[in-house]
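Listing 4. Sequential folding, example run.
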Amino acid sequence: MTDYYTEAVHGPHEYLDLGSFALDSGHTLPAARLAYKTFGELNAAKDNAVLLPHMYSGTAAYMETFIGEGRALDPTRWFLILPAQLGSGFGSSPSTTPPPFDRGAFPPVSIADDVRAQHMLVREHLGIERLALVSGWSMGGMQTYEWAVRHADIVERAMPLAACARTPDHDKLFIDVHTELLRSDPAFAGGFYRDSADVHLGLRRHALAFALMGATPDMFRQQVWRELGFASVQGFLQGFVQAYFLPMDPNNLLCQARKWREADVGWGDDGDTATALRRIAARTIVVAFRGDAFFPPEDVEAEAAHIPGADSRVVGSVWGHFTMFDLREQDTREIDALYAEILAR
């Protein structure tokens, strides 16, 4: 298998043994493990902890972009916890789990499962009773909503970025498209391929779907891909989007995509998302990205209206959902300013 999801590439992780971990799907994952990274030190009062869950296709390392001395997420002030999603390639995932739960037989997991595992890490393992902030982008934002709804007594501040508390129907259609493209490669073999590189055709097709939806039409119209050093659209598609996805494990992506598709914080309220959102007690800023085709500002702001006292912001330039990839300095400055604002409340 590819070594993309290794510590040699993404840096060392810590691991929490979850034991026999009961999943929402009714399955039990034996010998489950949660991978995570930390930066900074937990203070004596244990009141400086910030949790930063990550997005689809990512790892804990992707939230490191916004951490740094002198910045809002300063590790000399905050104890920053970066958990890996179940199914991310670190910890329990299709690519890391031995038979009989390996590869295409890995059981379905949910965002609620992620948050329950993270709760075990935060409360039981680290002994933290309050989180100063929970914040993430895309699926990291969905985990943020789940934390804020399910553990309102723990989360002091919440800032989901480019995410919805319930996956919109149009977004579910996109997920159906990109997962079907991934499975369309004959080498996929029902999820029991021997090497992820054998499924390169499916991964390339999957990447094209993200190239279409990830950035805005203005990015292509203004040829902003030139800022990344590419000489043509095709160069951008191959050198950026396909190069990003090709090293990944298809089963890991499908595991995460299912969580994304089924996400809804209203699962404990008979599907009433608005009622669930009204239980959020955290000081909240809900952030949408301008031109985001996955989670349009209209959808994001409609949900924010149900959160008591929440503010909403729309930021970003031409990168749409890809704004959080740190591709333009002005976008990064805006996000840093939002982190400074929420942490000052």
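-- end of first protein; second protein begins --
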Amino acid sequence: MEGFWPELFKKLSFGVVAGFGDTGLKLAAWQHIYSGIWHPADLPDYNSLKHGAVGFTAALSTCWTGLPFMNARRAYYADKTWPVELRRGYKSPLQALFRIPFEESPSYLFKGAWPVCMFNLMFYTTFFT
């Protein structure tokens, strides 16, 4: 299969960058918020509510972090399907991530934010709790 290894390398490298930039940032935010809260030893009811509140706060503050990576990946793969005269010439999703803010606008990376942010908010609130 022609081009298998270069495409696999592009997907893996972009996956690592997106993982650290999205999920890593979400987990770091949760840890930062959770570690700054007092932890009583004998109050399990308070602790149960605290996990949900901290999870919601961390998810709400970071629900948007995956959008630039997702939209850059979509732009890269869509660029391959466009006619030659309309193509931007992205070589990889990572290059698309760095070129889009300068060629289109930074807001292009945040298109379609509402459903993705709501999914991330609900999923990561449950995950963190």
